[in-house]
Amino acid sequence: MSSSRFVSFVCLLSLALLLQAAYGADPLFHFCSDSGNFSANDPYEANLKDLTAYLSVQAPPSGFGLSSIGRNPSQAYGLALCRGDVSSQDCKTCVVEAGSEIRKRCPYNKGGIIWYDNCMFKYSNSEFFGRIDNGNRFYMWNLNTVSEPEAFNQKTKELLTELANEAYSNPKMYVVGEAELKGSEKLYGLTQCTRDLSGSECKKCLDGIIGELPSCCDGKEGGRVVGGSCNFRYEIYPFVNA
């Protein structure tokens, strides 16, 4: 994926967020790679089709899958990741949808990545396994602002840093947690990495995006930094399955 593929700000309207929360069916975002194109009936197209089908079977049992199919110069590399609390069936549904949708949005691109609430799907004609993807990233945030942003920002950073310190050594590289706010209010957080990364690379990836909190979500009631190798989310309401 090109390192120039970076989007700093993505703001969704409240209605869109409500619909997404209710159905989880619409993509959050996607990028089409500029690494090259292929033509119809190219061997790469057949390899990509087989790869997409394989990942839809491989990923759901554990929530993660990666593979490559074919030989250079037509080899296709791919990865699918589901959010750690998502069931195998919902994971499969999401990966199938993601694999189909990214091919519609990037029909002849040799690389692409798409994110949903429940999963991420990424493919390329170049091997990317085990390396942090710093090129594909976007922000989302809640439209509401907290009354005491400085204290809230500090509490958010502390929670996400704590979760990052747990996630990199967790077998699923996925951790959720919560922290007490004023009164009965709570702050909920999530950190996750793709499992092709080593523990140290997962930690490095998460530390990097947590460092972007001021740019992303300063004083906002909720927010996310979502990348091709790791992501975090925080809200003042529960947002994962029990």
UniProtKB/TrEMBL annotation:
Main location group: secreted
InterPro entries: CRR_secretory_protein (IPR050581), GNK2 (IPR002902), GNK2_sf (IPR038408)
CDD domains, sorted: Gnk2-like
Transmembrane segments: none
Domain Gnk2-homologous as annotated: residue spans: 26-128, 134-239
Subcellular location(s) per record: Secreted
Signal sequence residues: 1-24
Keywords: Repeat, Secreted, Signal
Matching PANTHER family: CYSTEINE-RICH REPEAT SECRETORY PROTEIN 38, CYSTEINE-RICH REPEAT SECRETORY PROTEIN 38-RELATED
Family label: Belongs to the cysteine-rich repeat secretory protein family.
Protein name per Swiss-Prot or TrEMBL: Gnk2-homologous domain-containing protein
Species annotation: Hibiscus sabdariffa (roselle)
